[in-house]
Write a structure and sequence with these properties.
single chain, mainly alpha, 16 helices, 84% helix
Length: 447
Amino acid sequence: MAIRNQLKATFFLAYPVMLSQLGQVSVGIADSMMVGRLGALPLAASSLANSIFFVTLMFGIGISMGVTPLVSKAAGKQKISRITRLFGHSFWINVLSSILLFLFVLGFTPWMSVLNQPEEVTELALPYLLIISASLIPLMIFQTFKQVAEGLSMTKQAMVITLFGNLVNVFFNWLLIWGIWGFPELGLNGAGWATLLSRVVMMVVMGGYLLYAKRFEVYHFSLRITKPSLAIATRILKIGIPTGFQFIFEVSAFSAAAIMMGWIGVKELAGHQIALNLASISYMMATGLATAGMIRVSYFVGVGDFRGMREAGMVAFGMVICFMFCCALVFFGARFFLPSLYIQDPEVISLAASLLVLAGFFQISDGIQVVGLGVHRGLEDVKVPTLITFFAYWGLGLPLGYLIAFPLGYAERGIWVGLVIGLSVTAILLLYRFHRLSKDKVKALMA
């Protein structure tokens, strides 16, 4: 019965986050599908720009997630004033972080030539990169509202707002890429402006909800910090910064893979972008289960129920294995159809289909590792998982991918084999670590 209750509670927390994350990643999916109609060159430029931007974006999202387990734990202890203070500190941490991240991308743009990409791809990617990077600021503010609400186990509202934002993005894509209804025809840059506008809308709507809805009146949320506390800010950053690095090590590995793919050719890069776009759908939905696992684990830690904490974590692992197995079957069965939604070039479709087979093989590992990072975040155990991700991707996966792709001559498939290895090692180590840590906490409670 306890496991059934855990399954039910985790599901009702997870599915809105999964749909919300699906909506979030769908902004990029919609951009790629609509940009793909312009041809392989704009799609390759989009891949290059998004490879750089996504690393920065995920680091920012990692920082924003530092507040969620702390809010959930405070909710378990019924400390309302602490939740209020956590919100204020998180808001300003995220505002300053987003500005710094935008300036980082701005400072990197003169050095894009060092990536050794085709000149025409780099030239087209640069203005698009600057536009989507500006969307970091409204997105990080949106993340503040979203992560605090999720820490309070309120996940449906962000789902609705994110899906609405995705519709706004598609609408402005349609207007600005092709210049409909008298709007300027901006091509790839139009997709960038659509992304920026949709994230501003999401920020305003989610902020209005959290600040003015009656259900949050008890918390007296405000954009001002009434009692600044270095201790609270440090506590948020001690979780948020390592979480950001965890995301960076994984996402940057895929970005480095995109750069290596550009060394092979434009069509290989376009095929990689399509396969990666599709794999990101299942990954981002799996982060919904990771978020639910994190919320449940941190809540049980807050109330002192370590047996419930262990059960919550293990249930999240089991659920993500089942979900990602289904995703793998979809990738295997629809490997030629799915790329055709992006582009009509037969060579690019064939390349993407071969990579989707490999994506199918790493689905379960990808799900386990993302939930592993989530439940460890719920325990505020972030340092060792961060080192695990660095070793698995940069110490093992990428070097092996380069070796298999270039010296051994397996080209684009070799790069992805390396990624499969990195994800699998991460999954095994994180699952084992949670099993050991949670078991030790239960034994200590019973002693």
